[in-house]
Structure formats: structure tokens, C-alpha cells
Design brief:
Number of helices: 8
Distance between the termini: 57 Å
Number of strands: 0
Helix content: 55-70%
Strand content: under 5%
Mean pLDDT: 86
Structural class: mainly alpha
Shape: globular
């Protein structure tokens, strides 16, 4: 009888995973905030690139940006001036216009797919602002 209960529980858990935030896979892959600086920074940058590139990820960039591992690896001075951090902020609350008018080096250089995503997020942001009145 306990096996049927565990089967039901695992079935319920599997159904719950179907609604998991897609960004979770990247957050869960982040290194420990106490990991070695050079290796952690490279790993965090790779994870940020993957999240920005994945067309299914349209939210969660602010959460990724504020994660202790990201802050520890890329914002050691506390200035927040790393282009990867600026790019996460851009995808969280910025617009394509912010990107296109920024000085070179402010943001990471975006791929065509990332630019398309940023344009889509910009349309959503503008629509939300208009709807909010």
C-alpha cells in the first residue's frame, strides 16, 4: 500500500515539475557563492549566457541577477558595473532602446536570438505601461 502512495506522490511531484519556472534550471546550476572566484565567474557567465539565449526564458532575470552566487562572482566590489550584471538588469526591466543607445561595453554583445528576445520583452513592457495608464 505504501508503494501506491509513493507512486501517487511521485506522480503529483512530476505534475508539479511541469509548472516549474524554467529559470530554476539555471539558478540551480549556479556555483556556491563561496566557490573560487575565477572558476565561479566563468561558470556564472556561462549560465547567464544560456539563460539569455534560451527562448523559453522570458522572466526571472532579476532573481538571477540578485542570486548570492551571481553577486559573489561578478560584483565583488559592490559597484555592479559588470556588463553581465547590466545585461541581466536590461532583460529584467530595460528595453531595446536602452541597449541600442548604451555606450559600447555597457552590456554584453547580444546574439540575434537574444536581441529578438529583448525586443519581445520590450513590447511586453510597453504594453504593461500603457495598460497601467
Amino acid at each position: 500500500m505504501s508503494s501506491s502512495k509513493s507512486g501517487a506522490a511521485s506522480g503529483g511531484a512530476a505534475a508539479g515539475h511541469a509548472h516549474t519556472n524554467p529559470m530554476d534550471q539555471y539558478v540551480n546550476a549556479l556555483p556556491s557563492p563561496t566557490a573560487g572566484a575565477a572558476g565561479a565567474a566563468a561558470s556564472v557567465r556561462a549560465i547567464i549566457h544560456q539563460a539569455l539565449t534560451n527562448p523559453k526564458i522570458l522572466s526571472g532575470f532579476a532573481e538571477l541577477r540578485s542570486h548570492p552566487a551571481v553577486v559573489a562572482a561578478l560584483d565583488r566590489s559592490g559597484a555592479g558595473d559588470d556588463p553581465a550584471l547590466h545585461t541581466l538588469d536590461l532583460f529584467a526591466k530595460g528595453t531595446y532602446s536602452d541597449y541600442s543607445s548604451a555606450a559600447p561595453g555597457t552590456y554584453l554583445t547580444l546574439t540575434d536570438g537574444q536581441l529578438t528576445k529583448l525586443r519581445q520583452l520590450t513590447v511586453v513592457s510597453v504594453a504593461q505601461r500603457i495598460a497601467a495608464g
